[in-house]
Specification:
The chain is mainly α and about 475 residues long. The protein folds into two domains: about 160 residues, Alpha-Beta Horseshoe (Leucine-rich repeat, LRR (right-handed beta-alpha superhelix)); about 280 residues, no CATH class. Helix content is about 70%, strand content about 5%. The protein is built from twelve helices and eight strands. The strands form two sheets. Strands 2-4-5-6-7-8 form a six-stranded mixed beta sheet. Strands 1-3 form a two-stranded parallel sheet. Helix 8 packs across helix 12 and helix 11 packs antiparallel against helix 12. The chain is flat.
Length: about 475
């Protein structure tokens, strides 16, 4: 009775429900136990049923929580209370969707399903939408790649009729979809370009962004821009400032290419060294294993105890020799890679240091421009104040500018505040670039060193496990002889 009562309550998909459903419908016995112990990998789920077949899962009102099922091909939500088809965007491989016996009434839900390019089977029978006179025609027109609708194959004649009936609406929809797709592609391209610029630490330096940011919070500077003669001065300042930023931007991209080339070359050298070393190790192991079976068979067939013990000792020496050879090869590789890593570390640190040094030198030009502009602005402001005091100003000043022209101290404070804001923006952008470049370099070098330590530990472990296995086989022969 309790279970039936719970099953009638409206429900929303959540992670616990999803885990339970996947667990119950997943593999049984050992495979199922292993999945439950190690955690369910939702990306491996290909089919999922959340319908009347299990009372624990029905009466779902909203589709949620399926984002992790990225490889799901078959989804059944039959016999629930769903009124809207949405939140399935992550299911890009969806082929079969069963939503029969729900509460879907709006035909626009069909248009949402156009994004699933692999969808071939759809069931919506038992929904209010399926009672519409134009239901089948609409579905066939807007989902032209669908093969089965409500368990019936869609014939070519139906598709042609549907396409003809809804051609105008479909053409309009395709046009809108193409515009949206084009915009998304543009945004993606812009994002990729931005990420490229960020990797070079020079994002937003290919234009007037830094210059404009200096005036975003500069209240006094924006007021002073209305002084006679300042507009031309400001435009000349901006033009020169932007050129300097573009120089930094272009230089940054070139330096990024150099760093990438250095890293790619290093990785190639490391992989070549490891590959060559592994081949030598494989060759030595192959030679050992050729002799291995013969040695074991000879020991097993030996009836004389003295000869048996001698062969045991000899084979033990062969195992020890192999161990020494493999460890020697590994130590040689460690030394070789250490030298390669150290050389790369010096090169990449030098590249980053040179990059930072040149950027700082170029950024100094921005400060020089700002200092020059500050001097000119101050000069024009003082001259304007003197004219105001003498009553020689021909043009009326904006109302919000007049309070600045009371005395020299007020003018000095206003122009100085503007100057400080500008210098701070320049300093902050330079500091950000330097900090990120140095952090990137430090993180990269640390990661390379850590990866090499892990590689060495794994290799030493592999060697020891292999040698232990060989030694255990030998020890088992000795034990069996003792038992015999």
């Amino acid at each position: 009775m309790h279970r039936l009562y719970n099953s009638l309550e409206p429900r929303v998909m959540d992670e616990d429900m999803l885990k339970l459903a996947v667990g119950e419908q997943g593999p049984r016995e050992e495979a199922g136990q292993l999945a439950r112990q190690e955690g369910i990998l939702f990306k491996d789920v290909l089919s999922l049923r959340l319908d009347f077949q299990n009372l624990s899962f029905n009466n779902i009102e909203a589709i949620e929580g399926l984002d992790t099922l990225v490889n799901l091909e078959d989804l059944s939500l039959f016999n629930n209370r769903i009124s809207k088809i949405d939140s399935l965007d992550a299911l890009v491989k969806l082929q079969v969707l069963s939503l029969g016996n729900n509460q879907i009434g709006n035909m626009m839900n069909i248009i949402y399903l156009r994004r699933f390019k692999d969808l071939r089977t759809l069931s919506l029978s038992g929904n209010p939408i399926a009672e519409s006179e134009d239901y089948k025609m609409f579905v066939c027109a807007y989902l032209p790649d669908l093969v089965y609708l409500d368990f019936h194959r869609i014939d070519d004649h139906m598709k042609e009729m549907a396409e003809s009936k809804h051609q105008y609406s479909i053409d309009e929809l395709k046009h809108r979809e193409n515009l949206i797709q084009s915009r998304l592609e543009d945004e993606q391209a812009q994002q990729e370009e931005l990420e490229k610029h960020k990797a070079a630490f020079v994002e937003h330096l290919n234009g007037s962004f830094l210059f404009d940011s200096m005036y975003t919070e500069d209240v006094e500077g924006n007021k002073l821009a209305y002084l006679p003669g300042i507009s031309e001065l400001l435009q000349a300042y901006k033009d020169k400032f932007v050129i300097i930023c573009l120089n930094i931007f272009e230089y940054g991209l070139k330096q990024q290419e150099k760093r990438k080339l250095e890293l790619d070359t290093f990785n190639e050298c490391v992989q070549e060294a490891i590959q060559e070393n592994q081949e030598q190790g494989k060759h030595r192991i192959a030679k050992f294993e050729e002799k291995h079976l013969l040695s074991l068979n000879a020991i097993r067939d030996e009836s004389e105890l003295t000869n048996f013990e001698m062969k045991i000792v000899e084979y033990g020496k062969d195992i020890t020799e192999l161990f020494n050879v493999l460890m020697t090869l590994e130590m040689q590789l460690v030394e070789q890679l250490e030298e390669t890593i150290n050389m790369f570390e010096r090169n990449i640190i030098d590249l980053v240091a040179l990059f930072i040094e040149n950027v700082q030198s170029t950024m100094a030009q921005c400060r020089d421009l700002e200092n020059h502009h500050h001097e000119k602005l101050l000069e024009i402001s003082i001259n304007t104040l003197e004219k105001i005091l003498k009553g020689d100003v021909d043009e009326d000043l904006p109302d919000d500018l007049r309070p600045l022209f009371v005395d020299k101290d007020t003018i000095f404070n206003a122009v100085g505040a503007s100057h400080d804001i500008h210098l701070l923006k320049i300093d902050n952008r330079e500091d950000e670039l330097v900090t990120r470049a140095n952090s990137w370099c430090t993180h990269l070098v640390d990661t390379i060193h850590k990866n090499e330590i892990m590689r060495n530990r794994r290799r030493v472990k592999e060697i020891n496990q292999y040698i232990d296995h060989m030694q255990n086989e030998l020890d088992s022969l000795e034990c069996s002889d003792v038992i015999d």
